[in-house]
Amino acid sequence: MSLQISILTPERPFWNGQADEIILPTETGEMGVLKNHAPIITGLDVGAMLIRGGQATGSKDDWNSYAIMGGFALVKQNQVTILANEAVSAENINPEEAKEAFESAKVNLEKAEGVKEKVEANFAYKRAKARYQVVKVLKKV
């Protein structure tokens, strides 16, 4: 295996294992990490995180997907440490509920008025979109 990955949330260690590749939802876009990546600390946005191979999937070419609700990632010496505000595995998300929540959040965002309401609606939209994206990766929707 090439990367040792640890995902930590305030509640508990979420996942720890080895994988071949990870794609992170950073604040500047998606970032892929492979073996021997340059050291970096980056902020994580609310979005879908993908892990390929190793203990994450049991197969070298399969992907697992997770909804990450912001945080930070440290990449150093083939170790990826993720401090996430919240993390949810695609297997623990109901696809129909995720789709309904996404569509509802999208409508609420379009209807939002005022700064506070727009900020809250945007955050709810990003959370719902992340959850919906991870189940779409598994093609459950």
TrEMBL record:
Gene3D superfamilies: 6.10.140.480, F0F1 ATP synthase delta/epsilon subunit, N-terminal (2.60.15.10)
This protein's record includes keyword Chloroplast: yes
UniProt keyword annotations, A-Z: ATP synthesis, CF(1), Chloroplast, Hydrogen ion transport, Ion transport, Membrane, Plastid, Thylakoid, Transport
Chief location category: membrane
Protein purpose: Produces ATP from ADP in the presence of a proton gradient across the membrane.
Gene Ontology cellular component terms for the protein in this record: chloroplast thylakoid membrane; proton-transporting ATP synthase complex
Name under which the protein is recorded: ATP synthase epsilon chain, chloroplastic
Organism: Volvox carteri (Green alga)
Residues in ATP synthase epsilon subunit C-terminal domain copies: 91-136
Keyword Plastid assigned: yes
Cross-referenced InterPro entries: ATP_synth_F1_dsu/esu, ATP_synth_F1_dsu/esu_N, ATP_synth_F1_esu_C, ATPsynth_dsu/esu_N
Gene from which the chain derives: atpE
Bilayer topology: Peripheral membrane protein
Cross-referenced NCBIfam families: ATP_synt_epsi (TIGR01216)
